[in-house]
Model the fold of this input.
Amino acid sequence: MNKFLLILFHTFMTKLKTKSFIITTIVTMVALLGLTNLNRIMDMFNKDSGKEKVAVLDQSGQLYMPLKQQLRIINKDVTLIEYKGTEQEAERAVKKGKLDGYVQIGLNKEKLPEGSFKAMSIAGTGTSSDIQNSLQQLKTAMAASQINLSSVQLQKLYEPVAFKKTALEKNAKTEAELNQARGLVYILLFIIYFAVIMYANMIAMEVATEKSSRVMEILISSVPPIQQMFAKILGVGLLSITQLVLLLSMSYISFKRNMSNMNGGLSQYFGFNEIPVSTLVYAVVFFILGYFLYATLAAFLGSLVSRIEDVQQMITPMTMLILAGVMIAAFGLGKPDVPFITFTSYIPFFAPMIMFLRVGMLNIPFWESLASMAILIATILLLGVFGARVYRGGVLMYGKSNSYKDIKKALQLTKNK
Done:
């Protein structure tokens, strides 16, 4: 047991002190700080650039003021200026940077508004779209006036139809709750995906590195390979928990400080205002189960290669399995209750993502999530037993090794020991 703990903490401390781990953690923390303070960063740039100035060439002589009032309702950051010069003068002003653009407005043959917008670039469609929408509102009002529609009649004409969605299933989520759950599950899914794939790869690289340096020959003479395998899995597991706690704690604190400025925006859509405790518990459980599943798989695959360069080729199918789970989950965000999603949530290699998607989006019976966890645990145990046998023989194999036929060779070496 002492040797097991020695390898466990050695793996943990060695990886914790590496420059790559420290740099990756710092860079990720800076990136997360930027994302959680994105609104403040954007406001800072907006203050520097000021409001957009758009000149209005009103050929009708009667549309400028109504357009300005309408646009003020839609976008207060765009300032319309009545321009008395010619179009050529307005164009020169735009090219010199004095104006952000100009719009020509007038009346067509039917006495209804029409216009055109010109700027140095139309890649950012926000301003032009807001002006177009304002002009559309004017056109609607003027057309209604021509056919003698009152403002009350016009309001009734464009009033949205009353349409309420109600789920008959007991304790089913409302539409607002589904939207929040969808955003939250989307983010947590990618946390699970990137964490599992990154730390599973780390285990495979760790085993391959020791084999390539012949350190494995010394280790197996003093510590059984099975203890080595699970000590490395737990050691990297502790490392992953340490890094995730640092990153998520910093993100949560930073996000909480900016919550007041984000109410009604992305925070509401992604469900950060009220995160259900059960969703967080399921996220932790399925992350741990997913980690152990793929970490065990990565450990014995890493034991089959003798060169670090061969690791990526050997674990590519494992990476594709994780990617397939994410792709299925992305499809399931829009249709979480279809039979295909239900079926794949019980497949162990997809369950950490798909079943988490279902428990986050739907009110499924507890036994379904419990059954998926049981299947995952059973698969981890079976994979652990099989993987330990492969690992035991695989660490003794040297030379060129980049084929899955080497699993058979590893098992034969285990039997001969």
